[in-house]
Amino acid sequence: QLQLVESGGGLVQPGGSLRLSCAASGFTLDYYAIGWFRQAPGKEREGVSCISSDGTSTDYADSVKGRFTISRDNAKNTVYLQMNSLKVEDTAVYYCAAMAAWPPIAVSMNRGEYHYWGQGTQVTVSS
Predict the structure, then answer these.
(1) Which of 7, 57, 62, 63 has minimal Cβ neighbours within 10 Å of its Cβ?
(2) With bands split at pLDDT 50, 70 and 90, how would you rate the model's confidence at 80?
């Protein structure tokens, strides 16, 4: 079974931090670009950040640039999203997704290009 499992979500105050993890099972992430997406109530799913399979290229939505950092540890088959200076507007369900990609530097924020998706983890930023 090919599976991605997100963890690390929860309730945090504005200005706080969370680190989300995306762990893969059933396959290795070595050849996959990984994207983080989020969906807030009443809104479409949007790209947050992505990282190439070799870890050399990243991309961020303007709304999170400078606050969020994506990283990966292929040896642990895990991708992370460090979220700092969280805002109420960051409240959403966050999804991890994997995209088989070539060349290794390729990244994409287009959710249609991602093959495998996790179940999502809730992030709530509230006072």
Answers:
(1) 62
(2) very high
| DSSP code of residue 71 | E
Q: Torsion angle of alpha carbons 35, 15, 67, 90, nearest 10°?
A: 40
Q: What single-letter amino acid sits at 89?
A: E
Gap between the Cα atoms of 3 and 64, Å rounded: 26
Pick from 83, 111, 107: nearest CA to 97: 111
Distance CA 34, CA 58 (A): 10
Query: Could you report the per-residue pLDDT of 11-67, keeping only the tens digit for each?
Result: 999 999 999 999 999 888 889 999 999 999 999 999 999 999 999 999 999 999 999
According to the model, what pLDDT value does residue 89 have?
Answer: 97
Beta strands in 8-91 (DSSP E): 10-12, 18-25, 32-39, 46-51, 58-60, 68-73, 78-83
Verify cis geometry, omega within 30 degrees of 0, for the bond prior to 103: yes
